[in-house]
Hints:
With 176 residues, the protein is α+β, with helices and mostly antiparallel strands. The chain folds into two domains: 1-33; 54-175, Immunoglobulin-like (Sandwich). The protein has two helices and nine strands. A hairpin with a 2-residue loop joins strand 5 (103-110) and strand 6.
Amino acid sequence: MTITKTQLAIIITVLALVLIASVATTVWVVFFRDDGGTPITPDYPPQGTEQNQKPLEGDDSDKMESPEGGGAINVTYQTSVKVDLSENKVTLLYANPQASNQNVAILIMIGDLVVAKSDLITPGHGVDTLTLEKQAKERLMVGGYDGELVVRAYDPETNEKAMVDAKGKVKITIVE
C-alpha cells in the first residue's frame, strides 16, 4: 500500500491538530481551570480562634470521657442557615459546649462549595454569625439549598486534626 502526498499531508495535518488540542488542554488545566473544590484541611491549623465566638450562657456541663489519644465533641447546631448576600453574612447556630474536650472549626457547604467557614471554636463557646465566602457570593442565587455542616475537631494542646469529621444536614436560605 502506497501513501500519496495528499494522504500524507492530511495525516500530518490531523496529527498537528491533535497535538495543538492536547497542548491547549494541558495549559488550560494547569493555569486557568478553577476547581472550586473544598480547601484542603491542614493537620495543624493556624492557632487563631474564631473572632465571632461567644461564651455559652448557663453551660456548666462536665467534660466528656475519651480514650487516651482520642477526643470527644458534643455537636449542637440548628438545621437552618440564612445567607444574606447584601451583607456578606451567614447566620446560624453552632455551639461547642463545655462538655467537649476538643476545639472545632466548622464549614457550611453546598456540594463542594464552601459557603462559610470558621476559625477554631473553643469548648464553652458558640457562633451565630460567619462571613460569606467570596466565591460563594459569586455563585449563589436567592432561594433555598440543601447543605451540610462539617465539623472538624482539633486537639487543644497540639492542634492536631481528628481523623474523622462530623457532618450534619442543613437547609440554607439565600436572601438579598
